[in-house]
Design a protein that fits this description.
12 strands, D-Maltodextrin-Binding Protein, domain 2, alpha/beta, Arc Repressor Mutant, subunit A, 3 domains, 26% strand, 8-stranded mixed β-sheet
Length: 289
Amino acid sequence: MEIRQLTYFIEVVKQKNITKAAEMLHISQPALSKVIKSLEEEVGITLIHRSNKTHELTDAGQIVYDYAVKIIAQVEEMSATLHDMTNLTRGTITIGIPPIIGSLFFPKVIAAFHRAYPNIHINIKEYGAAKVTKSVEEGEFEIGVSVLPIENESLHIFPFVQEKMKLIVNEQHELSTRKVVHMKELRDVEFIFYSEEFALYEIMRTKCIQEGFEPKIIFKSSQWDFIAEIVAANLGISMLPESICNRITNKHVRIIDLKPVTKWELAIITKKDRYLSVAGKRFIDFVIK
């Protein structure tokens, strides 16, 4: 049974005359009669009582007509929905974002995207970068935002931010008057780090080890502003991305360049073998561009 057969059958019922129905459908009368006959043969029962002046439904014809109307309506609704999604008049995106990244970059991005596509619903969940990556791989999120590098061949990676890491110290610290500090000079200082579930923890710990020492971490936190306040109290030093440093307002904190330059790189990630919605594709393009 074909959609075309049902569409033609509905028109014959509406017009109660096969000639008028053929005119409305812009096909010949014999062609239309053949379609209706094939539909009757397929269901194995007469659907229309034919006469010279009019065509009336049989009981079976009424049943087929009622179902045909529902089927055509659903097909049209499906087409309209797909059209809406293609043209981004509706849709939902599920995104996993680490809290630090979300607070830094995404309020303005999401606000701008919502203005451009007001009917696209964005569902955001905040996890650490490692958990975001795992959740995208397992299919929980359509889109994730994580910190590079990511060694995972099952993911598509779309870099969109690259920043320098900066050193922050108290104004009374012996390094506070320096413009540049080399990582090797930090061998004997005490650090305030992000917690282990954040990618920044491993990035900076690895960098210290590459420079020949294990960092002396005396305190860990999941909040950049709390880290800045501890540094302001002169309890240790820390290293943070430039965009975070630019948000520090405490006058007792000094921001210093680090050598060698250490990059903080962010990327949007998606699973390679998962369907990516039209809305999701547009969101990625929106963020990158």
